[in-house]
Each structure stands twice: as C-alpha cells, then as structure tokens.
C-alpha cells in the first residue's frame, strides 16, 4: 500500500537562530559573516537527505512589530533583543539559497510563521497529506493531531499526540489553555501570577478548559490562587489568545507549488562559491557524465557488531545502502562498505570510490598489484582480511575505478552521511543481537521449566493459559540495488 505524500513545513526562524548561535565566528575571506547561512544550509540539506519529503516549504516571520498579536498586546515579545546585526546581513543570502534550491519561502503580512504553518497543516491534512512541522518551538505542539506531527531535528525527536500529552499533561488542543494560565516568558505572555505550567495543566485537566477553570474558581485549591484567578481572568483569556495559533491565514497556495524540485545549479553553484562553501558545493555538484561516485564508510570494533554506510551517485540519482555484521573490526567494515557499493553496479562503469580509510584506498590503489604479483592475495593466511581483498579485486576487474581518499569528519557532506549510516547500522545490529540473546535466554528458561517433573496433585479444572506470540525480526536487508 502506497504511503501518503509527505509535506514538511519548516519554521524558518527556529532554524535560522539555531544556525546563527550554533556556528559562531565564521566569515568569508572578505570579512562577511556567513555562520548563519552555512548552518542553515547544512541543516536544510540534512533534512532533505534524511527525510526526503515530497513537498516542502520554509515559513518565515515578518517583523515582530507587524503582527496582529502586537496590535492587541504591545508588550508581546517586546522584551526580546533586536536581531543581531551580523544575522540581519545574512538574511538576504538565506533567501537566495532557498531560491536557488527551488524551495518556497512563505510569509503572510500580519501573521507569524506559526499561524501560516498551522493553517497550511490543517488545510493539507484534510487532503490526506501527512504533515510534519519542523521546529524546536514547543508552542507549535498545539497543532499536532491526526496526520500532523512535530519534528525537532536538533533533538531527533518526533512528537505525536502522546508526546504532547507527556510534555504538557493535556491533549494538543488544550495547550493554549495551559499557556493562557501559565503564560510564556519567551514570548512575554503574562498568564496568571503564581500559576506555573504544571499547576495550569492540572487545572485544565480538572475543569476541561481555561473557561472551565474561570467558571469554577471557587473550587480551585488555595486562597491566593483563587484570588489571582479572579483578578487576572481577562489577562488569562488574553494570554490564551496570544498563545493560540490561527488557522485562517489568507494564503492560497496550491500543493503543487510546494513539490520538491531539483536545485537550480546555475544559480546555486556560483552562490556557494561566492560564500566560499566548498563542502556544500561538493554536495550539490553532480558527478561527471558517465561516472558513478561511491562514498563509503565503516564502523566496527572487535567485540561487537560493525556497520557500513554507502552513498551512490549517478547523474541526478542518489541511493543509500547500509547494513551490519555481527562481529567486525573497523577495517573489515571499511572494506565491506566498498564491496557493497560495487556490488550495486550491474554493468561495467567508470567509478570513483571515495573513503576516509587509507587502509582501503592505499590497499586498492597501491598495494593490490604487489599482493597479486607475490601471490599474497591467494596464499592462505598470507594477508589480513584476505577474503575481502579478494572480493574487491574481483569486483574491481569489472570496472574502471579511481580510488580517492577524503579527510574524515571534516565537514565533507558525503563522508559524514556515510559515517552516520554506518553507526546507525551498527546500533541496529547491537539491538538485534541483544534481542536474540534475550530470546535465547527465554527459550532456555522455558525448556528448563518444561523439563521439571511436576508433583502429583489432585485433579482440578484446567485454567486457560496464554501462548506467547513469537516475534519475527526483519532480516538483514543489504539487498542488491539496481542503480544504473
């Protein structure tokens, strides 16, 4: 069954500020600050590669002074410092990056990004689109519901209805009621003095809503709390209005306008060169015509499972491979990664293999011919990891290959991705092994119980018993990939 199309709505301000403060003191050779531009683009690239949305939009905020919330409550967000000058100068370039990536940048006069996101999320969910809101802002948890989840990429945390309930103690639709009572210091929303988020959640759960709390103030525990609620009832209602996202933003945008498109490389590459983002230029520059690029990395240790990660690029196509071995060293996993990449090619090709393993690159580029001349490649036990070197030699004979070393963990986009794939695969292997050990122990315990000879007892009616269902684990899906 085909899964529903995926729309990702990215809170631009959240990403931009995280990028600005996450990457500091970075400037071009001409002295122009570029830290926010680089951090934002990297985060956006990671999102595209990790989740591969069908539709995507970045939603931006207007100046805070130009929103309806500021009109009804002038102190709203007034305590926040002005945007740093070093960040202001980078915003036009962030817009240029989005334009070159063919990603829509949306905003609506008078409304915040949260309102635009909420309106679009509800509209497209009604069209059976799965919507993911990408932000670190807890206030947007109120939009979570059937078909809408919130993703915090910094914490690698996806929140659905249960996570909202765990976080606030109430369903998503009641989050504004909690914030109306507790306020929100980050947005300068006042709430009711003396009522924190935990107490607010307890009150909303008990009375059903903010209005329910205000209706039954006489039943609220604590004399001072009751008095504060009476004195600040209108302030609580105002606070809820400020905290509630709008679903009626007048922004008509066909879903087709949000469909993911390939970057405009003639516009993007010169822009990346102007900003001196060499690593990002590599990420977006396709391989030469007729050449397959294979990036590979391995992760392993003597005492546990090892993983591999591979990225294959051909023209505008890109595929990922990953898997694990129950026990493998780092060196073996580096070789296995290259083997899996070459196995994915089903006819002779011109190939460039990139790895941060000098063991692999020098072995195939410098040492292999010597091993073949001296017979070490075929003499039993004459060569460490001989079985894998033999496989690589056989696979390499089918292609015209250039082996190239890249500096690992130095911002290289494909090396870092392969490293993540490899480590994730190794972690999966560890879980599978642990589950297998537990299953074996449980089976051993059951066998021990079955071998116990029971003492004779008086006949009695047999009680019903439950049979534990067997758990089927997915096999290691290395698979062969028809890439080209």
Tell me what you see in this structure.
The chain has 484 residues and is an alpha/beta fold. The chain folds into 2 domains: 6-256, Rossmann fold, CATH 3.40.50.1010; 286-414, Ribonuclease H-like superfamily/Ribonuclease H (Nucleotidyltransferase, domain 5), CATH 3.30.420.10. Helix content is 44%, strand content 13%. It contains 18 helices and 11 strands. The protein has helices at residues 12-22, 35-51, 68-72, 85-88, 91-100, 113-125, 161-168, 175-182, 197-207, 210-215, 223-231, 233-243, 265-275, 278-284, 330-343, 358-374, 386-396, 413-450; strands at 6-11, 55-59, 105-106, 130-134, 148-152, 157-159, 291-299, 306-314, 317-325, 350-355, 400-405. It has a 6-stranded mixed β-sheet. Strands 9-8-7-10-11 form a 5-stranded mixed β-sheet. Strand 5 and strand 6 form a beta hairpin. Helix 8 crosses helix 12 (233-243), helix 13 runs antiparallel to helix 14 and helix 15 packs parallel to helix 17 (386-396). The longest helix is centred in the last third of the chain and has 38 residues, at 413-450. The radius of gyration is 29 Å and the shape is globular. Mean pLDDT is 89; it is low at 459-484.
